[in-house]
Amino acid sequence: MLDYKIIEVKQSIFEDNDADADRLRQELKEQKTFLINLMSAPGSGKTTTLCQTIARLKDEMEIGVMEADIDSDVDAATITEAGVRAIQIHTGGMCHLDADMTRQGLHEFGTEGLDLVFLENVGNLVCPAEFDTGSIKNVMILSVPEGDDKPYKYPLMFSVCDVVLINKCDTLAVFSDFSKDAVEKRIHELNPDAEIFYISAKTGEGFEGWINWLRGQVNDFR
Amino acid sequence: MLDYKIIEVKQSIFEDNDADADRLRQELKEQKTFLINLMSAPGSGKTTTLCQTIARLKDEMEIGVMEADIDSDVDAATITEAGVRAIQIHTGGMCHLDADMTRQGLHEFGTEGLDLVFLENVGNLVCPAEFDTGSIKNVMILSVPEGDDKPYKYPLMFSVCDVVLINKCDTLAVFSDFSKDAVEKRIHELNPDAEIFYISAKTGEGFEGWINWLRGQVNDFR
C-alpha cells in the first residue's frame, strides 16, 4: 500500500494564468502556507535537495511536498521515506504546471496546518519558467556538471527565480571548467536580486545559507 | 563578423506535424542528406559530443550542424571553430522544433552536397520527444551525473530514440550510484532496439562504437 496519493491533473480551464496565479497566491497568504516552486533540468538533484532540506527543518515546521512528473512515482516514494507528507502529481505528458494544476494538487493534498509546501516541478528549464504556478517564491537548481553557461541558454528561468541553488558542489574539482565567478556574473546580469547558494545534496555541505534563508522567509510569512 | 547565420524560425503553419515530418524525410532521402535530431537535457554535452564526432568524420563526409536555442549563439560559434558549417536557429522561446521549423533551418542552410546534418535540438527531455522533426534518426544523450533513473521520468524520449549516448563516463567513479546494468535494463524495457554507447566527450573515450554506427548509417544512405 502506498503512503501517498497519485493524482492526475487536468489542463487548466482558465485563459489568464497570470491572474489565476495571483488568486492562488492570495489564497496561500490567507492560509499562511508558504509555497515554493522548485525547478531544474532533469537530474540536477531536486528530490535529493528536498530530502536534505526536510531533514533540517521538519522538527520546526510542518512541511509537505507535491511531486510533479510526467510519469512514475519514484520521487513521492523517496519523499515519504524522508518523513513528510507527499503527493505525486501526474501531468499527463504536460511539460509544466500552471496555477490551476497547482491548485488541483493543493486541493487534493489539503494544506491545513502546513507551513511550507514544495512543488517539485517537471524537470525542464524551458516551459516551467513561462507559467506562474502561484507560488510565493521560485527556486531553481543548477548542478555543476551542467556547466556555467546555462544562464545564456535558459535566460527566462534564471530571471524568474528568487534563489539559484548550485548543487553537486562536491564535484567542482572534477568539473574544473565550471567557474563560480562566471556563473554568478551571468546570473546577476539577468537577475540582480537572485540569491545564490552553493550546496551538495549528496554530502550535505553548504546547506546553512539556504536553510537560513528559507527559515527566515517562512517565519516572516506566518 | 560571424561565420554563421542566425535565423529566427516561425511557428509551423501545418496542422499535421507527423505528415509534414514524413514529407521532409522523403525530401532528405531524395537529396541523400542524413539528418540526425540530437536531443538531451540541458548540460548533457550535446555540443561537445558533436565536436568530437565532427573531428572523427569531417575528412570522409560533408557535415553541417543546425544549433537550436531559445537564445544565444555560443554553440554555433563552438561548432564553427570545429571546422564545419553551422547555423544558429532561434526558436523565439519555443521549447522544441517541429518539422516545418527544421525545414526552415535546412532551407536557410542549403543542404546541397551535405552528407550528414545534425540538428541540435533545444535542451529538454520532454517537449522535443513529442514532435517529429523529419529526421532520419533520433539520438539522445544521457549524462552520468543525471542519474540512471531518467528512463522512468522521461519515458517518451527514450522510446523515440534510435541511439542513447551515455556521456561523461569519465565521471562514473564519482557518480558511483549510477548503474550501467540498471540504465540499460530501463532503456531496453522502453525501447528494445535502442543502441547504447558509453562515451566521454571531454576525454574522447568510447567514441569508436558510435562513430562506426554513424559511418555505417550514412554510407548505407548515400
What does this structure look like?
- Two copies of one chain form a homodimer.
- Chain A is of the alpha/beta class and 222 residues long.
- Chain A has a domain at 5-10 and 18-141 and 206-221: P-loop containing nucleotide triphosphate hydrolases (Rossmann fold).
- Helices cover 37% and strands 20% of the residues of chain A.
- In chain A, strands 1-4-3-5-2-6-7-8 form an eight-stranded parallel β-sheet, with helices on both faces.
- In chain A, 52% of the residues are buried.
- The A-B interface holds A 41-43, 69-72, 74, 93, 95, 122-127, 130, 143, 145-147, 149-150, 152-156, 168, 171, 174 and B 41-43, 69-72, 74, 93, 95, 122-127, 130, 143, 145-147, 149-150, 152-156, 168, 171, 174.
